[in-house]
Amino acid sequence: MTPTISIIMPCYNAATHLPQSVGSVLTQTFNDWELIAVDDGSSDDTLAWLQTHTDPRLRIHTQTNQGVSAARNTGLRLARGRYIAFLDADDTWAPTFLEKLYRALQLDADAVLSYCGWQNIGLSGGQGNAYIPPDYEKENKIATMLNSCPWPIHAALTSATIIKSAGGFSHRFTNAEDYALWLNIASHHKITLVAEVLAFYHHHTGSQASKNRVKAAYDTWRVKREFIDQWPDIVKPLGAQRINALTHGELLKRAYTCYWDRDMEAARQIFRMVMKTGYGSIKDWKYMLPSLLPLRWHNYLIKIFG
After folding, report:
1. Alpha carbon 181 to chain centroid distance?
2. Does 242 share its domain with 258?
3. Each residue of 161-178: pLDDT tens digit?
4. Are 150 and 186 in contact (CB under 8 A)?
5. Cβ atoms 102, 30 nearer than 8 A
6. DSSP secondary structure letters along 38-68
7. Same domain as 81, residue 194
8. What CATH number corresponds to the domain at position 127?
9. DSSP H helices in 82-212
10. Residue 191 CA to its chain's centroid (Å)
11. For labelling alongside 152, which of 21, 109, 113, 158 has CA 20 to 30 A away?
């Protein structure tokens, strides 16, 4: 029997986290789903753990290690549901996640994607506050979405037809691959907000793509620039100044964040990216130009001038 929702879970050396993530699927109040777990060449007990489950809704696919985008695209090819949800093997949902996001799409026949609020788990210093994104249909939609990735991969439910026609995930990005997909879908179709925190992003000491600050900054910038180049008529109303602020300006903000964190290796690389675009005020260039110097000289200038 064809399920209503296909859940795609890429798994790579995720045995430690699977009890939580798969457990959050098994406790969903909406139960007409299939979970496609794509074991992407794990060397731990991921596959063995998955094979202990007898729930017929769990489908297991194994492949050689090809990366998260390839694993998700494999899941898309195998998916039979009318709607698609993604859940990474180290993240979780509230029990009503599927029920409420599915209901939102049923209530708005024009919407092809529903999204919700989320919370970061495992971060200190107040970074774990719950967050509910804006209603992008009521905001300046394109500008707001160009500012940054609007929601994490597991905080949305999407029409399978739409997500497959959008081409799935690009293998060219190791970060922001989901952002490219969301921009493509939301810029051409209506989306709808479920204003509740129903998705949870778990930070831990393992490998997470978002930890590479330089790569994350560069890939996000590339996604924006490629979208702008592909759809000039969509972004034209924003004007060149606003577009530059949303692309180069946001890249510069990431550089400053690294700088004030004294992550100088990352800050210097991102500053150099911004300089190649020619963006920034005189004050900005005073911060950026020392990135062309050897690191020890740069650190010396910081020590002298602050």
Report:
1. 9
2. yes
3. 999 999 899 888 888 999
4. yes
5. yes
6. EEES-SSSHHHHHHT---TTEEEEEE----H
7. yes
8. 3.90.550.10
9. 97-107, 141-147, 160-165, 177-186
10. 17
11. 109
